Amino acid sequence: MKNTDKFLTGIVIAVVLLVGAAFAVALLRPKPVYQSEDAPEGVAHNYLLALQQGDYERAYGYLAPTVEGYPPSAEAFAENVHDYEWMFRLDEASITLVVESARVTGDRATVTVRETRFSQGGLFESSQSSDTFEMRLGHDVSVWRIIGSDAYWAYCWDDKEGCR
Fold first, then answer.
1. Considering the entire predicted model, what is its pTM?
2. Number of Cβ atoms within 10 Å of the Cβ of 160
3. Dihedral sign from CA coordinates of 122, 32, 117, 127
4. How many CB atoms lie within 10 A of CB 47?
5. What's the pLDDT tens digit per position in 34-52?
6. Using CA atoms, how far apart are residues 4 and 45, in angstroms rounded to an integer?
7. What is the mean pLDDT of the chain?
């Protein structure tokens, strides 16, 4: 066998191994799981995870009923999410959300979440961008509920008349 044939065979084997390793990493990555709801961080995480998984009934359960434009039902909540889908970024599959911190003051909390977007251009072009936003929670009796957010929130929920 010629040296060039051995070299090309080595390259092909290396590429196959790299592709196999990439698939293994993608498939073995742990699935996101719901967290304890004892702390505001867990409630914020669970709300965002429920939205990403399309479990609108569960996400609706994390809203505080004291929100001005509180949707009257989980169905109305789901309808609001779809009507304002650009605010919920449901059409973007390559987003990760990570709760970074929480500040608790009495019965109020502010949770900071990092949103990272990944985008692919051509064969060798990719990029990522990160932003943070805040979610506001209130403690009602024995549970934390979301009372506002800078993202993943329909702004008409802040209006007495709600969404129309």
1. 0.80
2. 6
3. negative
4. 26
5. 999 999 999 999 999 999 9
6. 54
7. 87
